[in-house]
Design a protein that fits this description.
By secondary structure, this protein is α/β, with parallel strands linked by helices. 31% of the residues lie in helices and 15% in strands.
C-alpha cells in the first residue's frame, strides 16, 4: 500500500465507504445507529450550515455531546467546514467548561439543551446547534434541521496539514492544556515524521476508526 493510499482526506474516505457499503451500520450508540452512507450524507449539509453562520475558516467550534453518534457527525462536519473542532467532556464542571471555551476561543458550540443552559456569560451568547429531543432554546438551531437543510455551500477545502481539531489533556497533574494536531483531515493523527506504512492503519475498518476519534461507547459494528 502506497503513502497516497494511506494518507487521504476524510471526505474522500466518507464517500468511498458510502459507495462500498451504504446499508451497513457504521456507528451506533445506545439510542440509534447510522449506516456507512449516512456520515457522508448527513455531515455535508451540517458542514454547509456552519459555513453560513458567519464562521470563518479556522474558527473553533466546541462540541459538548458526549458518547453519541451526533458527536462523531459533529467532528466530521466541523472538519468538512474547514474549522477546528474542540470536543469537550460534558461531565466537566461549569468552571471547567468556561475555561475550555475561553482558552480555546470557541466561536460556536454544538451541544444539547441541558449543557447549553449551563454556559454562562459571555458564552451563553455563542451561536449554537442543539442536538437531542425537546424544544430548542431561543437563539439556537436544531441539529436535525441543519442536517436536513439543502442549501449549497463550499466545503471540503481543508488542507492535509491544516489544524483540524483541538484536544485537551485530562489535567491529571495540572490544569488541562490544549494541543492542536496539524494532521488535518488525514486518515490518522500521526506526526509527519512517523507517517510510515508500518504504523498506519491497513484495513478499511482501521482507516475508518482512525479517521475520527470514536467515543468509547460508540462503535463500528461492521467493516464495509
Amino acid at each position: 500500500m502506497t503513502r497516497d493510499e494511506l494518507i487521504r482526506p476524510v471526505p474522500a474516505l466518507l464517500k468511498e465507504h458510502a459507495e462500498l457499503a451504504p446499508e451497513r451500520v457504521a456507528y451506533a450508540d445506545s439510542a440509534h445507529g447510522v449506516t456507512y452512507a449516512d456520515p457522508e450524507r448527513r455531515t455535508r449539509p451540517l458542514a454547509g450550515h456552519l459555513t453560513r453562520t458567519g464562521l470563518a475558516r479556522g474558527d473553533r467550534v466546541a462540541i459538548i455531546l458526549g458518547n453519541r453518534v451526533q458527536a462523531v457527525e459533529s467532528c466530521l462536519a466541523v472538519l468538512r467546514a474547514g474549522m477546528v473542532g474542540v470536543p469537550l467532556d460534558p461531565r466537566s464542571s461549569d468552571a471547567e467548561l468556561a475555561h475550555f471555551l475561553k482558552d480555546g476561543r470557541a466561536a460556536f458550540v454544538i451541544t444539547d439543551a441541558a449543557h447549553l443552559g449551563r454556559l454562562g456569560p459571555p458564552y451563553d451568547g455563542l451561536g449554537a446547534l442543539v442536538a437531542g429531543p425537546g424544544p430548542v432554546p431561543d437563539g439556537a438551531r436544531s441539529f436535525h434541521s441543519a442536517v436536513e437543510s439543502d442549501e449549497p455551500a463550499e466545503i471540503d477545502t481543508l488542507g492535509l496539514d491544516d489544524p483540524a481539531r483541538m484536544l485537551y489533556t485530562s489535567g491529571t497533574t495540572h490544569r488541562p492544556k490544549a494541543c492542536c494536531p496539524h494532521s488535518g483531515p488525514r486518515c490518522g493523527p500521526w506526526p509527519p515524521a512517523t507517517r510510515r506504512s508500518k504504523g498506519c492503519p491497513r484495513t478499511r475498518r482501521e482507516r475508518a476508526e482512525w479517521a475520527v476519534r470514536i467515543p468509547p461507547s460508540s462503535r463500528i459494528v461492521r467493516d464495509p
